[in-house]
Design goal:
This protein is an alpha/beta fold. It is 41% helix and 14% strand. The longest helix is centred in the N-terminal third of the chain and has 28 residues.
Length: 360
């Protein structure tokens, strides 16, 4: 066979096979991926519409408001924003009350100021007595002392053991399962649209990590109240002068570093994230500084959302107070999420609100 004959045979083969290849590619391109359903736990509402319109705008490369994925930073408060706080108090408050007043391994060792802080929580929860002025800091210092000496693994196990207890005021869930299902759907939606979200809480960082680990949240994206850590063999030597050994481990101390509330949240966001958020979610005045920081973003379009606990039928809420806060948040330029009106479910099926019960 001549060289010219071989060339003509090759041309003929390509002529026959090319349409087949083109048809195959065309069929692949014609396949439309199944669209994912989001927000099954939500009712159609103003806040959800605002969120979806915002995300669609800033993720559209043709939009003047387009934000690159590396700058799509969202920050979430924890207690009352996606973890229930009305049991009838913060998770970390309830756990300190238990640690000091009920835990037989510790209650006889608690210093007077720690015991007083725990009793203030108990009186608030059971009698409705107002907490002392400045209790955020009183609690923070008391909690630092109450868990001092615990290794990080011991503390993590302690938090998870408390979280496994039945949630007071509900049937069908534990404290740790007391998570707002609609807000988990927000996490999923933002993740799928290229956002990176951080938990920025006033609660202890390691409590937050223990509670959010089952939700698949990376511990490196959790910012909270911090106490100083040290090696178990370090003693009083400063860390800059001490070299930790391979067999050593970190323990908690009684020294509070920061209570992560209000403007401290803003400072910690810049310290740890290094970028101004474009989305912010919270539920209280302790989150307003974080929201304002987000809305002051000079580079990108931003939005802030406040959740109000206004559902007295499905949760332990004060609707009158919540509606006053809603008006305040709207005036501040925040979108308002109503638990009563916007959530089809709060904690998921099988969970019911009941009266609080306390041992005698």
């Amino acid at each position: 066979m001549t060289r010219r004959s071989l060339i003509w045979i090759l041309y003929a083969f390509l002529a026959i096979s090319t349409p087949l290849l083109t048809t195959s590619c065309s069929k692949q391109e014609a396949v439309t991926p199944v669209s994912k359903t989001y927000f099954a736990s939500w009712n159609e509402c103003e806040a959800l519409t605002a969120l979806k319109q915002y995300v669609e705008d800033v993720t559209n490369p043709q939009s003047a408001n387009y934000i690159k994925a590396e700058d799509r930073i969202a920050t979430f408060d924890m207690d009352g924003t996606f973890v229930g706080e009305l049991y009838p108090s913060y998770f970390e408050y309830n756990m300190l009350e238990y640690r000091v007043l009920d835990d037989a391994t510790y209650r006889d060792k608690a210093p007077d100021d720690v015991r007083q802080a725990a009793q203030a929580i108990r009186d608030f929860v059971r009698k409705g007595t107002a907490l002392p002025s400045g209790f955020d800091m009183i609690h923070a210092h008391a909690a630092a002392k109450a868990y001092a000496g615990m290794s990080l693994s011991e503390f993590d196990a302690y938090v998870k053991a408390y979280a496994a207890l039945p949630a007071n005021g509900f049937t069908g869930m534990t404290f740790g399962q007391g998570v707002y299902q609609p807000m988990l759907e927000v996490f999923e939606y933002l993740k799928d649209n290229g956002f990176t979200f951080y938990v920025v809480s006033g609660s202890d960082r390691f409590i937050c990590r223990a509670l959010t680990e089952p939700l698949g949240i990376d511990p490196g994206r959790v910012i909270g109240m911090d106490v100083r850590l040290k090696s178990n063999k370090q003693g009083d030597t400063e860390g800059v002068q001490y070299t930790m050994g391979k067999e050593e481990y970190l323990v908690r101390t009684d020294e509070l570093i920061i209570k992560n509330l209000k403007t401290n949240k803003v400072q910690q966001i810049m310290q740890e994230i290094g970028k101004v958020p474009v989305l912010s979610f919270g539920n209280s005045g302790g989150d307003a500084a974080m929201h304002n920081y987000c809305l002051g973003n000079s580079k990108h379009r931003s939005a802030a959302f406040m959740l109000i606990a206004d559902d007295e039928a499905r949760d332990h809420a004060n609707r009158e107070k919540a509606l006053k806060l809603a008006a305040q948040w709207r005036d501040a330029g925040y979108h308002v999420i109503s638990m009563r009106d916007d959530f089809r479910t709060i904690y998921g099926p099988g969970v019911q609100k009941v009266a609080f019960t306390f041992p005698e």
